Amino acid sequence: MRLSIVIPTLDEAAGLEPALIALQPLRALGHEVIVADGGSADGTPDLAAPLADLVLTAPRGRARQMNAGAAQARGEALVFLHADTRLPAAAEGLIAGALGARCWGRFDVHIAGRPRLLRLIAALMNLRSRLTGISTGDQAQFCTRAAFAAVGGFPDQPLMEDIELSVRLKRLGPPACLRARVVTSGRRWETQGPWRTLLLMWRLRFDYWRGVPAESLAGRYPSQGGGTGVGPG
Is 203 helix (H, G, I), strand (E, B) or coil? Predict the structure, then answer.
């Protein structure tokens, strides 16, 4: 099963190169890496070009960028990876095995950072995801191309696109919840403070659940670049 790894970026030059270098062994195995840029002003596309199979420019917005990348993908499976998230070893085999039984899934997550609270937050994220079948972008969501097409891809909204994709995919079947962990940056948690960030995520998720439009919620979320998601909480 060939993987197409789609990475949305926006001004990620400072940290993108290590992320792409980590994916080179997968490229050597025949999988492809697609960088979908939202109009970076820091040279991100030029930096990504020698380390990706395709670099494209799409209308700004993580959902739009990932949809654009998926539209150009040639693999049987799509993996949506944030620029600040690293896949575990042998991810290709884990994903292929999972998609042999289910049409979509995600990994458990580990949040890298100094605060010990981040370990608890990650554990709660993983537990909540396993119980609800809802995953976030920080967990490296993956699915078959057929499933992605069947649900219409990511919704055209500025926030909670990962949550909404999970809701759509759940209609096709439950996710494969892999216990192998992706490692995602804790930069937003450390910048905003773990407790403050956690409470914000909970409020956003609750308001979205009760029907507040994503467009209204987006103004309350501190943007940290094209690769950082709103998932935790």
Answer: helix
Q: Quickly count: other Cβ atoms within 10 Å of residue 199's Cβ.
A: 12
Question: pTM, whole model, 2 decimals?
Answer: 0.89
The region of weakest confidence among 32-41, 51-60, 121-130, 196-205 is 196-205
Q: How confident is the model at residue 145 (pLDDT cuts 50, 70, 90)?
A: very high
Q: Give 197's contacts (C-beta < 8 A, 6+ positions apart).
A: 188, 189, 232, 233
Q: Where are the domains of the chain?
A: 3-218
Residue burial 140-154, b: 16+ Cβ < 10 Å; e: rest: bbbbbeebbeebebb
**Residue whose C-alpha is closest to residue 131's, from 166, 101, 91:** 166
Which two tokens mark 40? 């970076």
3-218 classified as CATH 3.20.20.70: no
